[in-house]
Specification:
127 residues, 2 domains, mainly alpha
Length: 127
């Protein structure tokens, strides 16, 4: 077993001076403890700030890569449209027709509902 190397303070007799010495020793111990806690908080705060900076840099790099990738896709699409314009006109037409039909069907359905609700409001519910 290794001997403990901790300072020991002899207890002064139970007098006013002895109580003052005990209070001073306790105050010094408390101040040392608070100093240690403050140092730990400082270290934790520095770590948190460092982690935030690292995360921000990573997010910035990722955003830059996404932007570059989007620009590359735009350039590639522009090139392919210039090379094969009829193919892309046909593709746009093929996609546009079903979308237009769906929108027209939904619009007609909404118009019928509005018409039915306005008739109900004017004439009352049907029997």
């Amino acid at each position: 077993m290794t001997p403990s190397i901790s300072p020991t303070v002899e207890r002064a007799p139970d007098t006013t001076l002895g109580r003052a010495v005990d209070a001073a020793v306790d105050t010094v111990r408390h101040a040392t403890h608070l100093s240690h806690e403050a140092q730990l908080l400082k270290t934790v705060a520095a770590d948190i700030v460092e982690d935030g900076v690292y995360a921000a840099k990573r997010a910035l790099k990722k955003a830059r890569r996404v932007t570059e990738r989007a620009a590359d896709l735009r350039d590639q699409a522009e090139y392919r449209i210039k090379r094969e314009p009829f193919k892309f006109v046909g593709l746009a037409f093929g996609i546009g027709i079903p979308i237009g039909l769906i929108l027209a069907w939904a619009g007609a359905r909404a118009a019928r509902r509005r018409e039915a609700s306005s008739e109900e409001a004017e004439h009352g519910p049907r029997a």
